[in-house]
Amino acid sequence: MGKTINLQEEIQKKLFNKIVSGIGAENNAAHDAANEYCQLMCKDPSTAIKRLPEFMERVRDLNPERYFVEAVAGGPNHNWTGPMLDIVGTVYSALDRDTRKEGLLQCMNFLNHLRSDYSQNHVELINDPWLVSDIYINQPLYWCGYEEYTDLLQKNISWNDFAKNTQHVKSEFWLSLAISRPKYSSLEIRHNYYKQFPDLMDRTKDGIAAIINFGAEYYYKKENISMQESIDKELSGYDTLLHNDILKKIDEKKWIRLDE
């Protein structure tokens, strides 16, 4: 199953408190479903991944007028279904490649049956950089953007002000991506953020590597621009302190492309 981690500790600490409790305020039944899925993911990630469609149907069925409401609205309530994808993301980087691929396939199968803007609503709730970037490089239409985080950074340039206004962050990855760009974040915030969240930033650099490489491949195929030129151009938008690590991670190719 990949590197050994204490799933019980990770899920109870990071998932239950953050993801599940957030749902509970809206709907107790959705809270219970997410709690059960957390526990299953803790005990047996492979089985939990296979049963993702079952749990998605369970929370979607909580609405007695589900088919009418989803048809009118354009998709399911992402505040109930999005956290299920986030639960997959919490263990995603710790899984072996085959199990990760199965998890990605399950997530993509769900997202591919939604309207693209509803898929974006789900992706913006996923914390894990590996899962978000793998979703993006397999379907760029699901890029949700991170304007809310660039706005936050530009309004709070000191670390103290920034720290006071991050209580309701939807995604660790999208926030980290915004911070990694000096265009939006101050040196003080970048320095403190990198220091306080080294594991998150390491996985964020993996995500950035996947996104940059994907873009470089696109421009090479469509516009005959060399891979290196495209990589250098995209890399220039990120903090120079991250460049060497991102380049190494591009060589490591940890991402998953389903068409390869």
First-to-last CA distance: 22 Å
**Helix/strand structural class:** mainly alpha
Query: How many structural domains in the coordinates?
Result: 2
User: Please, how many helices?
Assistant: 16
Uncertain segments are: 1-13, 19-26
The overall strand count is 0
- Shape type: globular
- How much helicity do the residues have? over 70%
Q: Main sheet, how many strands, which sense, barrel? A: none
Question: What gyration radius follows from the Cα positions, in whole Å?
Answer: 18 Å
Order of helices and strands: HHHHHHHHHHHHHHHH
Structure write-up:
The protein is mainly α. The protein has 2 domains: 7-139, no CATH class; 147-252, no CATH class. It is built from 16 helices and no strands. It has helices at residues 7-24, 28-43, 45-50, 52-60, 66-73, 78-92, 97-111, 116-123, 129-138, 147-155, 159-164, 172-179, 187-196, 198-223, 227-235, 243-252. Helix 9 (129-138) packs parallel to helix 14, helix 12 (172-179) packs across helix 14 (198-223) and helix 14 (198-223) crosses helix 16. The longest helix has 26 residues, at 198-223. The radius of gyration is 18 Å and the shape is globular. The two termini are 22 Å apart.
